[in-house]
Amino acid sequence: MNFKTIASTAAKVKNAITGNGQPITTMSAWRDFAGLSPTASDLSEITYFTCLKTLSESIGKMPVYLMDADKNRVKGHETNRVLSIQPNSATTPIKFFTYLEYCRNHYGNAYAYIQRDVRGRLEGLYALDPRAVQIWLNNTDMFSSRKYYYYYTDTSTGKSYWINPDDMLHVTSWITERNGLAGKSVREILATNMTGNKAAQEFLNNLYQKGLTANAVVKYVGELSKERQRVLLDNIEQQARENGRRLISLPVGTDIQTLDLKLTDSQFYELTKYNALKIAAAFGVEPNHLNDYSKSSYANSAAQNLSFYVNTLLYNVTLYEQELNRKLLTVKEQDAGMQFKFNVAVILRGDPTQQADVIQKLVQAGIYSPNDALSLLDRPPTNGGDVHMINGAYVRLEDIGKAYQDGAKNNNDGQEP
After folding, report:
1. Same domain for 222 and 174
2. H/E stretch holding 12
3. In the chain, N or C: fewer CB atoms in 10 Å?
4. What's the sign of the alpha-carbon dihedral 92, 97, 98, 102?
5. H/E element holding 123?
6. 93: pLDDT strictly greater than 80
7. How many CB atoms lie within 10 A of CB 321?
8. CB-count exposure of residue 26 (10 Å: 0-12, 13-18, 19+)
9. DSSP count for the chain of H helices, then E strands
10. How does pLDDT run across 241-265, given as a tens digit for each residue?
11. Is 8 strand, coil or helix?
């Protein structure tokens, strides 16, 4: 397979992403750029939207740091400004990672172009619309050495670009295609269930528009043609909707009988709640994030938050960390033990009492110094606060009882013969 020249220069791809220098001035253009076009009807399903919001905001609000092999933060690295202050001239880190996580869940893939200067130094990261990116695989080589490239098409200019994998951040959903390169979104997997939930919401919307009234049967005496039936029903319906009135007039010999419709009889609420929990489970989102506190207590909610991190976010965070390590660090830096870490402490913070209890135990155990504890509370360090302290009464297991033996020996030495 013959590939075109890879357009990896910063100027070409930057122009492609920003629409060849043309500013985005309309809300519809912004929605298209962010992947939030009105055609994305799955976003109207409230459970699906809530799950996307929970996962995207959870990733977005966690700061990411570069750590060395001794778990110290590395300062002065080229990635610090890009990941902590400004990935590119148009966005901030929280918006950048929030959008990537949204794309990863909604489309199954999230892409960001890595812009470098002529010397190979990092200049910026640009999120791409997953719908405009294709993965091309050279299947003529041996399966263990097949190369692949990203093919990006700018929807504003119609220009296309080949991008080297080393110049692209790519995170996928947990389920991928056979070759493992492209991810598959949850909405594709749960298409049938999503259709049912949207139909239920549409049913409720129609019911609200009709004033929560059920269907009705119009009784009349005599025979009417289809055209006269249509005229009669249109007149009655127009009266019922006019100015929100509750009373209507009927022709002589005509009567209305409503068809009893109770949502409780069809267990509408139970079925809707069950379907919502199934969608949330597919995303790994806990019920309390859906405002379902029917079986929750204060302690149970805290446990659900911890479970959400361990069972869901930990995997998602690791995806980003490993991709950043692989694409933004040199081989020398990787061998030296440097790696990116998301600060998960921002989502695991409890109430002030819990925080104080945990920090106090960590300081008393000598794991944290007082200055480490102050940094967790966003407080400035204090002089002499870098000392690790521990209870002096602690002894090693093999030294248990030694103090009593030494004391008895001293007492015997002090006695007169």
Report:
1. no
2. helix 10-17
3. C
4. positive
5. strand 122-128
6. yes
7. 15
8. exposed
9. 16, 10
10. 665 566 677 777 777 776 556 655 5
11. coil
Q: Domain containing 254: what range?
A: 192-268
Residue 273 lies in a domain: no
Q: Judge if 99 and 18 occupy the same domain.
A: yes
Yes or no: say if 374 and 363 are a contact pair by the CB < 8 Å rule.
no
Using the 3D structure, point to which of 348, 380, 399 is the last residue of a domain: 348
Looking at the DSSP assignment, which residues form a beta bridge with residue 216?
A: 258
How many other C-beta atoms lie within 10 A of the C-beta of residue 100?
Answer: 27
Which amino acid is residue 19, in one-letter code? G
d(CA 64, CA 99): 16
- What would the mean pLDDT of 124-136 be, rounded to a whole number? 93
Same domain, 151 and 235: no
Residues 319 and 359 in one domain: no
Judge whether 40 lies within some domain: yes
Which residues make beta-bridge pairs with 364?
A: none
Q: Residues 292-319: pLDDT tens digits?
A: 666 655 556 667 777 788 888 899 999 9
Q: Is the pLDDT of residue 109 over 90?
A: yes
In a domain, 2, yes or no: yes
Distance CA 379, CA 372 (A): 10
**43 and 108 share a domain?**
yes
CA distance 131 to 129: 5
pTM of the model: 0.69
Please check whether residues 202 and 104 belong to one and the same domain: no
| Count of beta carbons in the 10 Å neighbourhood of residue 84 | 14
Cα–Cα distance, 64 to 79 (Å, whole number) = 10
DSSP letter, residue 310: I
133's enclosing H/E stretch is strand 133-137
**Domain end: 246, 268, 290, which one?**
268
Type of residue at 149: Y
Helix axes 314-328, 93-106, angle to 10 degrees: 110
- How many independent structural domains does the chain possess? 3
Judging by DSSP bridges, how do beta strands 168-172 and 339-342 pair with one another? unpaired
User: Are both 19 and 134 inside the same structural domain?
Assistant: yes
Examine residue 274 and state whether it is found in any structural domain, yes or no: no
Crossing angle of helices 191-209/268-283, nearest 10°? 140
128 shares a domain with 19: yes
